[in-house]
Specification:
17 helices; eight-stranded mixed sheet; 12 strands; single chain; about 45% helix
Amino acid sequence: MVKVSAIVEAASSHSTSARPGGFEYVFPAIRGVQAGREYYVTMWPLRLIPKLFLFDEEELPPEMRAQRTLNKARVPEMARYIVDNSDSYVFSALTASVNADVRFTPLVNDGGVADRVGTLAIPMDARFVINDGQHRRAAIARALEENPDLSDETIAIVMFIDVGLSRCQQMFADLNRHAIRPAKSIGVLYDHRDPLSTVAKQAVLKSPLFSDITEMETSNLAARSRKLFTLSAFYTADRALLEGIEEESVERRIELTVEYWRAVAKQFPTWEQVHRGDVRAGEVRRDFIHSHGIVLHALGKVGNTLVRQNLTPSTWEKKLSRLSGIDWHRNNSAVWEGRATVGGKVTKGASNVLLTTALIREVLGLPLPPEEQRAEDAFKRGEK
């Protein structure tokens, strides 16, 4: 009988009575109980992940699978994240089931807490099924191809004993039932890798006005919120503002962004009134278009043109002063319906952004790029 230490040499140093004639993987593990069933938490080196977790269910009908079909488009980005951040990446545990007669041997068999720590022996012919984490598994496999030095790093595995397809499917449903993707705003706030996230949050924080009226965590504003904007809306607007702009440092990009939005804010005195507490934010969002993300996005695109023209901030202000000539009331359906609203409700689809940007450019006397011109022509033909 050959014992295979699957994670560290220390695991193989503990004597474990093996199955006669059987080959096993032996992992250090912690034993736990959920819903009356035992499960185990262990660590595997990354090199084992693609070897033991084989994802071959794509050809099966959905009712015969224990996982959703792998979205291959997600894998390269996840793998690149590991490779590019090999000294700081973080991957959460994989959850898996194994359809085998496993054997747990505690290090200390005293009936106390210590007997939860030991070694877990799994037959080498066992079949492993990922209940949660198949995209992480595929990303790990891809990352190892690019950087084999990662092979000895480890990832946590939560291992359940398989009780059939229906149980595996239920585990997948249960694990994902309450999974909620974090709001984009808090993702931007906490992201220290993406330079644009740094620009967006620092540009807001450096402005007494915007830092007060911008929601930094959620991406949806409640009706009674005292905030006008969200950080995620500024992130989208800043991406448009800085697209193709070559600056030598993040600090300079932050400075440029602060200067531009300061010039914009001077054209909307209502924003300052919200900041002072003279007007309620909810009323402004309800009554005006200019307090919505679609207008921030459009203003970011317009600002990109102004920056590319190498105009000074004072010249920006002169150009932007014409914004006061636009009737920003949401109920001005003659201007906004079909452009920024549908049935009176603000919408931010790609075509709506183009049409809103086109209107602002025309008011400011700026030429329309071809894509906006086509959208504007189609919109006006529809009106006729």
